[in-house]
Structures are given as C-alpha cells and as structure tokens.
Write a structure and sequence with these properties.
Length: 135
C-alpha cells in the first residue's frame, strides 16, 4: 500500500523534539489517549510516543499500544498537515479492548486532519504582503 510506510523521518526521536511539542502544542483528548499537536518542523507529519509504566506496567501492553498507534498513524499520515505529535495513554487505557483503542486512535488522528492548523500556528502566521487587515 503506497504511503503506508513508517520511515525514520516520520518519527520524533530526540528529547528536544519531544520538549518542543510539549511546550508549544495543544492537546487533543480521547477516551484512552492524549495527543499533543504542534507545528511541524519538517514537511510531513511526525509522531513520538510517551508510553510509560504508570498506566501500562507490562511491556507487552506498552508495545501493543505503540504498535496500534503506529498503524493508525501510518494509514493517515499522508492526509495530515505538517505537524509533530506526541501520543500518551490515559489511565483508562487499561480498560479498553483492541477495537475501542483503535477507534479512539483513529478518531484522534482524524481530528488532527480536520483541524489542519494547530492553535500555536496562529502566532507564526503573518499577513500576506500587500493585504490590509481591518481592526
């Protein structure tokens, strides 16, 4: 399936990249996940995971959640604007089954696609040259 790969350039890798998203991003909340969305520093969408032991003590559960999130992101990445995302589970995640977790992930990513411009973008967008803004 074209466009469904998960290349290295589609991932947040460095601590400073995660910090930048947490500092300037807005939060989209779902039933099982919180997604922090910030203006992207590259031309495509990127994602990072903050899945700790607090809500998912078993490693196989953390891996399952990340695997499901990667798959949902991979399918929608081509439709997303240039944003950086950090996905974290909420405490409710332990109560969800695979189907409901996937539905929540899909809904979160669909909201990111629908929003197309994160809130923090309004600070960086300037008026076009030659256009006048009314007060």
């Amino acid at each position: 399936m074209p466009g469904s790969r998960f290349p290295r350039r589609a991932r947040l890798l460095l601590p400073r990249e995660f910090d930048a998203v947490f500092k300037s991003g807005r939060r989209e909340r779902g039933r099982f996940f919180v997604c922090v969305v910030a203006i992207g520093t590259t031309d495509g969408a990127r994602i990072g995971f903050a899945v700790g032991k607090k809500h998912l003590p078993a490693a196989h559960d953390r891996n399952l959640v990340k695997r499901m999130a990667r798959e949902s992101f991979r399918v929608r990445r081509g439709l997303m604007p240039a944003v950086d995302l950090v996905l974290s589970p909420r405490s409710e995640v332990v109560r969800g089954d695979r189907k409901s977790l996937r539905m929540d992930l899909d809904a979160l990513f669909d909201r990111v696609i629908a929003a197309s411009t994160p809130v923090s973008a309004s600070v960086r967008v300037s008026a076009e040259p030659g256009s006048e803004e009314s007060p």
